[in-house]
Structure formats: structure tokens, C-alpha cells
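Go through this chain.

——
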Amino acid sequence: MDTSPDKPSGDALTGSPFEGDYPDNRTDEQRKLERYAVSRQVTTLGAPKGPIIADFPRLLQERRGSQADQGVLQFEVVPSRQGEDTFVAAGEILIRSQDGMDLVAEARSLLDRRGFTPAPDYEDCPELRDSLLRFINPGMGSRELLAVVAQLRAEGRAASVNHITPLAPVAKGLGGPEPSAATRAFARTRSAKAPTRVAVIDTGVAAEKRTDGWLGHQDIERRGDNIDELDRFPEGGDGLLDFASGHGTFVTAVIQQVCPDADIRVYRAVDSDGVGSEVGVGCAMIRAAREGAQILNLSVGSQTFDDGPPVALEAALNVIGDIERREGREVLVLAAAGNYGNTRPCWPAAFRRVVSVAALRADFTPAPDWSTHGVWVDCSTIGEGITSPYVEGAESSLIDDDPDRFGPTSWAVWTGTSFATPQITGALARLCQQQGLTPRQALRWLLGSGVPVPDFGRAVKILPGT
């Protein structure tokens, strides 16, 4: 029996597999006003210059420094010859433990002499215990940290720093989202088929109970460990939205717009200022797969100081592969290609086992000036001026010179590969459910419907841009 999916036909062959399913209900005047806001967003992506951009890492460090003893992740900035600076967890080194007992013992001895101590065990992520060792020396600066990593590598150990996956204006642009007049009625398709389980690994989801049906508490579980805290920094809060607040909420609602029936589970691996480590993201990936996720959406990512793959994310993908083989099911991982505007690999998107998603302009043309791109990118869709439900709160003037206040049940317009990725995720969930496909069959169908674009993979239209 032929179990391959039906081949795309009609509009699908022009890169529009869902033509007419997601209309834009804004007026021309509303779109014109929002287009101005989107044009400002675009100018802060890619490789923006200016004193605010240069000072931003220091500002982030200051906002979280007083909470180091509360487990709040601290980071250092590592200058990069390849382009943008890289963020790394302060004083942390990761070593792959499959290199043999002798090599690991020698590495432990060297790190002990340099003042490192073993980090606490992976209590929430036991699967990493056998594959990844973590050592900490909080007093060591980034340059010395890289020197220790270089020495370990020269002696044959698979060592690296613990990279930070920044959101916030570091990778998302200053100004953040802008209020939008967009709305879309929430309506399930009420298919008799089991919904596709999707995991969103991000900043969490807002606790707000909206009145328009989106992100309903009966549809998306809220737990203490997956709520977007919105106002955690600086310590005690300042009555304003943190720098990455609402990111996970926005992303989750994009998936829900494309596939209202998806069974969405949200995992918080990045804090509300947009800072998370590759270990934290990797553990969230493993937990999601362990709990039955079929598709993982990661609208997060980072470049590395040496362009090499982050060892914790690689270990997490290996564990997920083990889960697939052991349980006989598929787990498909999607990740944003990044907003760096160059061709350097952004991880985890650049892993061959991950579906990498770049962004197009609102007119369905490539956006190489701000979307990361390259031969390693699998697909792309519009990421400029995407509208979605957002959170309630007021922006900080520290990142927006004209801060907005978002009321209850608000919608916003935002730009980035972060918002292209959940469209692809939602489309795959929809295809799995409606056509009875596995995630990888759905991916083949969707890519088959796309238009090939050099360095942007297969381009497909889903939600309208601005």
C-alpha cells in the first residue's frame, strides 16, 4: 500500500498551499500605519549599529546581576572575529563524556587545577547525565574561559562553553512589537482525527485569560514552570514588560492561528529578558520529546564563538533520536535561522537533523539584509510584519524610544525568523492532522509545494505580512 502523501497541486505548486485560508482583515489605512512600524523593526535587525546596541549587553548584565544567588543565569560577552559577539554562560565549560574514562578523568584534573567544580547533576534532565559534564568557575572571565577550552581541545577533549541563546534586542531588534489592529476569529476545525502535539520552547506563555478565544486555558496548560513572568527584571520588577516578554505567547498564538486544533504544550527555557543557556534549551527539548511531542518549535538560537555546533544541543538531539528509535515514533525539530543577516550557522537551526526556517519580506521576496540565510536553510516564509495575540503591559523606554502600552486581549505586529518558524510548525501540524501524515511526510509535502529560492530553501506562503 502506498503510504506517501498526495502530491501538492494547484495553488500549492506556486508556494501557496493554503491560499485564501488566512485573510488579512485590516484596512488599507491600518496596514499603512503598521507598515511604518514594521519598517522601523527591520532597520534594527541584521547588523544594526549605535550606542544603544553596543551598551545593551551591559544593560542586560546589570538587570540580572543582583539575582545571581537566586539561580538567575549570568553571562559574559565573547568578542568574535566572524561577526557579532557571542554570549556565553559565565564561568561554565561543557565536556562531552563519551570520550572515554581516561580523557574525562584528565579533563577533570585540569579543570580542578583551574578552580572549576562540577555543576549540580541534571535533576530535571537525567538523559544528559551520561553524555555531558558541566563545570563552573564563576570568577573566570570570558577570555580565560576560552583559553581553557582551547587547551582542553588541544589535548583531544570535546569541550566548549555553554552558549546563551539570546532573544531580546540582541537578536530580535530594538523596539520590540508594535500594537496591531489585526484580529482573527478563533475557530476549531473539529476534526475527528487526533490533534498533533506541538511543543513550543521559548519564554513561556502569559497567564492572562483572553476574551477572544486565543490561547485559552482549556487549550494550553499553564503550570508554574511555563508562565512568562513578564516583569522579573530588574529584581522585584519595575512595572514594565521585560525585554523579551510575550515572545513565547506571540509564537504560540502564531501556531494556533495556522492550526487551531493543535495540541500545544509550552516549555519555558528562556527568561523574560530573553536569556537562556544551550543546556536549558536542550533539557526542554528532551522533556518535550519525552512527554510525547511530535513537533518541536524553537524560535531561539545563537551563533557560536567558533561556528561549531553547541555540544549540549547536539547531545539533546542525540537523546531525542534515541527516544524516536525506542518508541517507534517521529519527533521533528524546527528552529529559526536567526536575524543576523549573514550566512554564518545559527544553532540549533544549522544542525542537519533540524528543519531550519528563514524569513521573507511581506512581498514574498528574500530578506538577506536581516534574515540569516545560506545553503543550510531548508525553507522560508514571510517573517516581516506578522500579527498575533500578545500580552498586556507597558514597554520600557530602555529599548523603545516611543514605548507602547498593550491592553487586555491585545494583538501586535512583529518581525523576525522567530515568527516565520511557528508558521511552518503550524502548517505541519495541520497537514499531519488533516491528511493523516507523519511529521516528516508532512514536511516533504510542504517543501514540495514551495518555490526554490537560493539560500532560503523552499519558500511557502502561509500568514500575511505587513
Notes: Residues 74-163 form a domain with the Alpha-Beta Plaits fold (CATH 3.30.70). The first helix runs from residue 28 to 43.
